[in-house]
Amino acid sequence: MAESRPELRDRLAIIAGGGMLPRYVADAARARGENPYILSLRDESGEDWSGYDHETASIGNYSVIATTFRKHGVGRVVLSGWVRRRPEWRDIHAPLRTLRIIPSVVRTLLTGGDDAVLKMVIRLIEAEGMRVVGVHEIVPDLLGSKGPLGRLAPDDAAEADIAAAAAAALALGRLDVGQGAVAVGGRVVALEGAEGTDGMLERVAALRAAGRISQRRKGVLVKLCKPGQDLRADLPSIGLETLRRAKAAGLAGIAVEAGRSLVLERAALVSEADAEGLFVTGILPDRTEKA
Question: Taking Cα atoms as reference points, which of 67, 75, 79 lies closest to residue 34?
């Protein structure tokens, strides 16, 4: 069978959640000469994967995932895209060889944050003998760089907001809750929760419209990796939709962690940011623990 050929024993598989990132990763992998296999998550991925070898499975059905990957010679796996609904413990179906870790899986699903759940997903996949790799290893060009991406840079007021929001985002990340925060006038006004970045920015826009946030001061969105986060999963990301929601919320710009965040649709994002008068910049936050 074709699946047993040596060149397929380390085939790349992409577990595709929602958003545009899985498509970027798949197209970039193909451009590099790979033939990626797509495992599309049911009720999460809305992409048409007809141009790729693909299968659809529920996020908790590790038995099907493991069997499918072995059948198609998968040796490397990348997790890509958002997942809106974490599986219930009763949705978990794992191969017999991994049943010994099911109690810790259930415990993580019940009590763990997103990063803890992602680490458990990685553990389950690697228990099947496959290696999980990061998106940045497949598409390094998506990583944000230090400094302004466009022609606009943060002014002194925005720098103060960046410092305040970065400190809040790191504190939030230590609790494994979210990756983003918004500061306006040097004051943190929103923290990212289960609603995600888009929901947080909608909340900021509503607070602004209700007069709860200054109309005079703009503010900044900051997105950072959580302290101790496994860089192979769920790197902070921004795209055109993030920029547009930041604009609707009245913000001056966006700051992301250089080298640890993904910038999607970069050329279009920078062009629109410049046209709309917003900055997008990469920062290196102070990750030293404060006493």
Answer: 75
Contact call for residues 62 and 94 (beta carbons, < 8 A)? yes
Residue 170 near residue 223 (C-beta atoms within 8 A): no
Q: Where are the alpha helices (DSSP H) in 130-187?
A: 135-138, 156-174
In a domain, 108, yes or no: yes
Helix (H/G/I), strand (E/B), else coil: 11: strand
Comparing 226 with 105, the larger pLDDT belongs to 226
Q: Of the candidates 127, 117, 50, 139, which has an alpha carbon nearest to the alpha carbon of residue 96? A: 127
- C-beta of residue 273 within 8 angstroms of C-beta of residue 253: yes
Determine the straight-line distance between the first and last CA of the chain, rounded to whole angstroms. Answer: 60
Tokens representing 223?
């997105």
Radius of gyration, CA atoms only, the chain: 20
Collapsing DSSP states into helix, strand and coil, what is residue 149?
coil
The three-class DSSP label of residue 29 is: helix
CATH code for the domain of 66: 3.40.50.20
Sign of CA dihedral 180, 184, 186, 191: negative
Q: What's the pTM value of the predicted model, to 2 decimals?
A: 0.83
Q: How many helices (H) and strands (E) does the chain have?
A: 9, 13
Considering the domain architecture, whether residues 119 and 219 belong to the same structural domain is answered as no
pLDDT, position 116: 59
The β-bridge relationship of strands 187-191 and 147-148 is unpaired
Q: What is the C-alpha to C-alpha distance for residues 25 and 69, in angstroms, rounded to an integer?
A: 18
Helix or strand (DSSP H, E) at 290: none
d(CA 18, CA 40): 9
Residue-wise pLDDT tens digits, 247-283: 999 999 999 999 999 999 999 999 999 999 999 999 9
Q: Residue 224 corresponds to which amino acid?
A: L
Same domain, 213 and 262: yes
CATH number of the CATH domain containing 183: 3.40.140.80
